[in-house]
Specification:
The chain is an alpha/beta fold and 462 residues long. The chain has helices spanning 5-19, 37-42, 64-80, 103-114, 118-127, 141-148, 156-166, 199-204, 214-221, 246-252, 259-273, 293-300, 311-316, 344-383, 387-392, 418-425, 435-451, 453-461, and strands spanning 33-34, 54-60, 95-101, 181-188, 193-196, 207-208, 231-234, 278-283, 319-325, 405-411. The mean pLDDT is 86.
C-alpha cells in the first residue's frame, strides 16, 4: 500500500524504537564554499526590489507535491490578472518576493529561476514526475539501520532535483536585484531556528551563496528527519573580514528582545565565532511551515520605520499583499472513536501534526500582527516627512502620505467549501501523485486565490 511520507516516516520511527538497531552513519558532505571579502562587499542585501508602488509577496507552505501543485495553481491565477497599465504585464510579473518551505520551496525556486516560463513546463518536469524514484522508501532492517545512523537517504533527492528540474542552477542565477527575490527556508536543528538561504546567513558563515546549488537548498528545506540525513554547511570562521550587522549584537545584549529575533541572532554569531564547525539542516516545517520567519525577523530587526525597505521604496508604496499559500493537512485518524489508542504509529504522526499545526498558527498570527504594526509605523513616518525630505525622495504633489493599504491573506483548502476541502485534504503529502490529483490541486490553488476577498480588494486598488 502506498502511504504518505509522514505516515511512512511514522512507521520507520516506530520500528526503530522497537528494534533498537544501530547502523552505519549516514551524512552529507558540505556543499558550500568560502567567501572572499571582495564577494562579501559586492553582494547585495536580503530585500526584495521593485520599481512601482506595489509590493506583492508570496509564501508557499510545506506538504510535498501536494503543496507544490497548490502553490503552482496560485501562480497560474496571478498570470491571468493583467495590470491596468496596458503594458501586457500580469500580476505574476509583479511578484517581488517568494518564500518557500519543503514542497513549496520547489515551486518557489523554479519560479524564481524561470519566472513566467515556469508555467510552461513545471507540471510536466516535476508535478507529474515520481520524485521518490531515487529514494529508499522500503521498510527494511537496512533502512532502519540507516535511519538510526543519521537518515535513510543522503544526497539522492538533491541529485534528482539537480538533474531533472534545476539543471545544475546555482544561486548566482537568483540575483537579489531581480524580481522575484527568493527565500528557501530550512531548520537549523542545533540552534532550533529558521535557516533562510540568503545573504545574511551565508555572510555569517563566511560562505559564498552564489556558488551554492539551488537543489541542495531545496533538499534541505524538504529533509524530513530520519527519512533524510541533514544537509550540511561548513562554517569558515575568520574567513572574511566583513562584520556582522550591528543589530545582531544589539539584540544579543538585549534581555527583552523578541525570542525569535534573539535566537536567530545567537545562531548567526555561532556561525561566525567558530563555536560551530558545521550547520545541520532539516525540513523547514519543523520550525515554520509557512516560511514567514524570515519576513518576521526582517520586521523585528528594523531600526527605522520604513525598514526593511529603502526610503524611496517606502514613499512610493501604495499597495501591499502578502499571500500565505497553505496546503497543510487536515485532521486525520479515528482513534478518538475508541477508548484505546492512539497506537505507536498514530501517536508519532499525531504528535508531529500537533507541533507543526500549532507552529503555523502562531507564526501566521505573529506575522499578521507585525505587518499591521509596520503599516502604522510606515504611515506615521511618511506623514512626518518635511517638505525638503519629500523633495529629496522625489514625492509628487498628488502624493498622499496615508495612501498605503496592507493585505495579509492565507489561502487554503477551506476556502473551497467542505466537500472540495475534504477531497484535497485526502491527498497524501508525498513526492509522487497521480495526474488527476495534481490537476485537482492546481485548480484548487487558482480558485482559492480568485475567491479571496483580500485579493479582490487588492486588485481593485490597482
Amino acid at each position: 500500500m502506498r502511504v504518505g511520507l509522514r505516515a511512512w516516516l511514522s512507521v520507520i520511527m516506530t520500528a526503530v524504537v522497537a528494534a533498537g538497531l544501530s547502523g552505519c552513519a549516514t551524512y552529507n558532505l558540505p556543499g558550500n564554499a568560502p567567501l572572499s571579502d571582495a564577494l562579501a562587499e559586492a553582494t547585495s542585501r536580503d530585500i526584495p526590489t521593485y520599481d512601482d508602488d506595489v509590493l506583492l509577496a508570496l509564501s508557499f507552505s510545506g506538504g510535498g507535491t501536494r503543496a507544490a501543485a497548490f502553490s503552482f495553481g496560485v501562480l497560474k491565477e496571478l498570470d491571468r490578472a493583467h495590470a491596468a497599465s496596458g503594458q501586457g504585464k500580469s500580476l505574476l510579473d509583479r511578484v517581488d518576493f517568494v518564500s518557500g518551505v519543503s514542497g513549496g520551496s520547489i515551486t518557489a525556486a523554479y519560479f524564481g529561476l524561470k519566472k513566467r516560463a515556469a508555467l510552461d513546463d513545471f507540471r510536466e518536469r516535476f508535478l507529474l514526475r515520481n520524485a521518490e524514484e531515487a529514494l529508499k522508501t522500503q521498510l527494511s532492517p537496512g533502512n532502519i539501520g540507516r535511519a538510526l545512523g543519521g537518515g535513510i537517504n543522503d544526497h539522492q533527492f538533491t541529485d534528482w532535483l539537480d538533474r531533472n528540474l534545476f539543471d545544475g542552477a546555482r544561486f548566482d542565477m537568483l540575483p537579489e536585484s531581480r524580481r522575484p527575490r527568493v527565500w528557501i527556508n530550512a531548520s537549523d536543528i542545533y540552534n532550533r531556528t529558521p535557516f533562510v538561504f540568503g545573504k545574511t546567513a551565508f555572510d555569517a558563515l563566511c560562505s559564498d551563496i552564489r556558488s551554492y546549488r539551488v537543489a541542495e537548498a531545496v533538499a534541505a528545506s524538504a529533509a524530513v528527519p530520519l527519512a533524510f540525513a541533514p544537509i550540511v554547511l561548513e562554517t569558515y570562521p575568520g574567513g572574511c573580514n566583513t562584520p556582522l550587522p550591528p543589530w545582531l549584537d544589539r539584540v544579543r545584549r538585549d534581555p527583552n528582545a523578541q525570542p525569535l529575533l534573539r535566537s536567530f541572532a545567537e545562531a548567526q554569531a555561532r556561525y561566525r565565532d567558530g563555536s560551530m564547525k558545521y550547520v545541520k539542516l532539516l525540513d523547514g516545517g519543523l520550525v515554520d511551515n509557512y516560511g514567514l520567519s524570515g519576513l518576521s525577523i526582517g520586521l523585528l530587526a528594523a531600526q527605522r520605520p520604513y525598514e526593511p525597505l529603502t526610503e524611496r521604496q517606502a514613499v512610493k508604496l501604495r499597495r501591499v499583499l502578502f499571500l500565505v499559500v497553505d496546503a497543510g493537512r487536515g485532521i486525520s485518524g479515528d482513534f478518538v472513536q475508541t477508548l484505546e489508542g492512539p497506537n505507536g504509529v498514530e501517536l508519532v504522526s499525531a504528535a508531529a501534526d500537533t507541533a507543526i499545526d500549532a507552529s503555523v498558527r502562531s507564526s501566521y498570527a505573529a506575522f499578521s500582527a507585525l505587518a499591521e504594526d509596520w503599516n502604522g509605523k510606515l504611515k506615521r513616518w511618511r506623514c512626518g516627512l518635511s517638505a525638503a525630505e519629500r523633495a529629496r525622495l522625489g514625492v509628487s504633489g498628488a502624493w498622499s502620505c496615508g495612501d498605503v493599504t496592507f493585505y495579509v491573506e492565507r489561502l487554503s483548502f477551506d476556502q473551497l467549501g467542505a466537500a472540495r476541502a475534504g477531497e484535497l485534504n485526502a491527498i497524501p503529502t508525498r513526492f509522487s501523485l497521480p495526474a488527476e490529483q495534481v490537476d485537482l490541486l492546481i485548480s484548487g490553488g487558482g480558485d482559492a486565490l480568485r475567491l479571496s476577498k483580500a485579493y479582490q480588494s487588492f486588485r481593485r486598488g490597482l
